[in-house]
Fold Bi-domain-containing oxidoreductase.
Amino acid sequence: MKQVVQNYKSGELAVLDVPVPGCKPGGVLVRSAYSLISTGTELMKVSEAGMSMLGKARSRPDQVAKVMQSVATNGVPATYRKVMGKLDSYTPLGYSLCGVVEQVGAGIDDVKVGDLVACAGNEHALHAELNWVPKNLYTPVPDGLAPRHAAFGTVGSIAMQGVRQGEPQLGEVALVIGLGLIGQLVVQLLAASGVRVVGADPDPARCELAERLGAAACGDPASAAVENAVAELTGGHGVDQVYLAAGGGSNQPVELAARLCRDRGRVVDIGKCRLDLPWNAYYEKELDVRFSRSYGPGRYDPEYELEGRDYPIGYVRWTERRNLACFLDLAARGKIDVEPLISHVADFDDAVETYRRLKDGELKAVTALFRYPEQAEEAGEAKAPAVAVPTVSVKPNPARSAKTPVKLAFVGAGNYATSMLLPHLAQRDGVELSTVVTTTALSAANAQRKFGFADATTDLDAVLGDKSIDAVFVVTRHSSHADLTRKALLAGKTVFVEKPLALTEDELAGVLAAVEESGNDRLQVGFNRRFAPLLQEARKQFGTRSGPASLRYLVNAGQLQHGSWYLQQGTEGSRFAGEGGHFIDTASWLLDADPVSVYAVAPSGNEDLQVVLRYPDGSTATISYVTTGAPGFPKETLDLVADGKVLRLDDFVRASVYGRKKWVSSRLPKARDKGQNAELAAFIKAVRTGGPMPVPLESLVATTAATLAVQTGLAGGAPVTLARAR
């Protein structure tokens, strides 16, 4: 098997082939899926290894003291050989991972082969393909928690133990100094405990991230911003607790803690920073200084960690294993969000280069993960039917001259094209309607006359071969969307295709294959609702959220007229397959994520559907797509609930947000604006500038896959996991 190792003497990092560890009694053999790179602890070790011998000695005075003691006891030659032998050898890296149980040792009955587990320990949760992990250093991963998120278990336990040492109470105010990985997790744990948090870090990006994840305010500790925020939140009394999650040689953190902590407050040291306590400041306030030891009770106790002897829960409520399980539970329920902390995911084979980039500062990361062979993740998530969400690489598109008009061709000129799209394009500056293509000459001629197309034709190949045409709109019947999109992409055109992108998984795969073959990823699907001005303003008024959300979307679709081609399900797909992507895309945009699973149920005898989407942070969206409602009731109503706030959308006529302040839009005086004009403006801008497409390709694919998964779920009667295929 392969493992990341380091030679502490030379500083060399390598991925070596090493023997597979045996599965001893009292533990399990785990095949890694993801392991977490500690950009604090591990990079400090990597940096130290690159120092001279004198530098190493200066950085580790505790080890120098041991060497001197050995010299006194064993003499210089023996000590030298011992020290050099230890330095000039490979040591492991890593201590937090998630993987799949491959073999179960004797005496283990709480997991079985194939179970997904989170593992801890700098001797047992290493950056290696396989690890033997004793019982008290692993815990099963809750259903629904992604392996990449479960890999945070150990660092989450470190943060959790620190918070427990601070004994936070509801309504208190805390200061977190240092907003690296541990600090970001401490912020979220405190916020989840009902504590208002102020963060201090010189990095503005980390401050912004902490505020997004629940901090009330953050700022540079050298500025007045932190002090002002503490004064405002505490009425000038000072914070109840300070958590030192910083590193380095500065004494500023402990001095800041003394200045901003209240009388008889608590100061908890979690990181590894300088601790020259200013005696007067700490004495006058009688501050309670506490230390947090790693993952929790049991750490460094070989009987607990290696022999599996647990502490009675009545005496030690939170051991390191129980902390690990607790953190995973919070993450699975969406109380803690680790996804924003993942700055980079690297293949395990690229470990050495990843460490180099981190060390040199080329790669800026709060957290980086190693991703192991694909079968590990798939085995851990094979608890429900899975639909693959294909992924493709994105390539840049060259910009064009701002003076050159964007030339468009339309394939199809039916009701939607002529009523919802072309009216917004016909008079737009910088746009030239070049050619319209239809299956019948008359419809093409009508579109040419009405909207001023330069040419009208029934020859699609001639349009695709015209190098002067920049973008092609596919606005035909659903069954032809995927094939026409594929052809236009292969011809090098930017493509706007009305929903749906595809009606089957094979069709979706064909479109993505065309992207890969041509290198052309310039694709937009007509999911216009996210561009609706009213919904955009409501989202802005709602603001950011820190906890999971619940979204309800009622679509009163109504009955179709007899003879509608939408009823031709054999060729054109179901109604939901045709337009359901609109509502899934809107929900995903509001929740700022792609769904990870879909569950659908339907009563017999009609086309009504209940679709439940689950998202990575624990948020859910329920789409009620009904055809049996009253015709006079609004078609689309939406409610989004999170963090004590509610967003309400009433059929794109009025919106409101309830929270600390109430916001209600004015009633729109004209027809509903569902975003087509803004969507087209964004699309044209992307074509003209060569900039990113209005909606990322990954999101378009994820929405399409989720829409297709509804039919899979109805047929199977079970939730469908949306697993990204590489």
